[in-house]
Amino acid sequence: MATPADPEYRARLAALSERYAATVPGTMAQITNALAACKATAGDPPPEPELRRLHELLHGVAGSAGTFGFGMLGQQARRIEHMVRGVLTEHTGWSAVIPEVEQLLKWAARDAQATDYE
Known about the structure:
Blueprint: H1 7-40, H2 48-64, H3 71-90, H4 94-111
Helix pairs in contact: 1-2, 1-4, 2-3, 3-4
């Protein structure tokens, strides 16, 4: 069984991290599109299908990013995912979600693997 100290294990994990890194721009583009779909509607909150899509994308990032060396990205996605879940259940708070998602997208565009969230 491979262990974290095993060089072969580390090499495989590094390769997986590189593959994950290559998917981040596409995932952020999907989040951008989901946010745009939510904003394009006149509702506050947006219709549930659009909001659920945004939630699913954030949930996916929150669940996988940390595993591949994108810890802060995962933490922030999880935080915003919880905000979106609140909008889905309470039907309020949407206006606070928009700038949070926009900030995440700008930050991730600069360096999605950064450890400081600015």
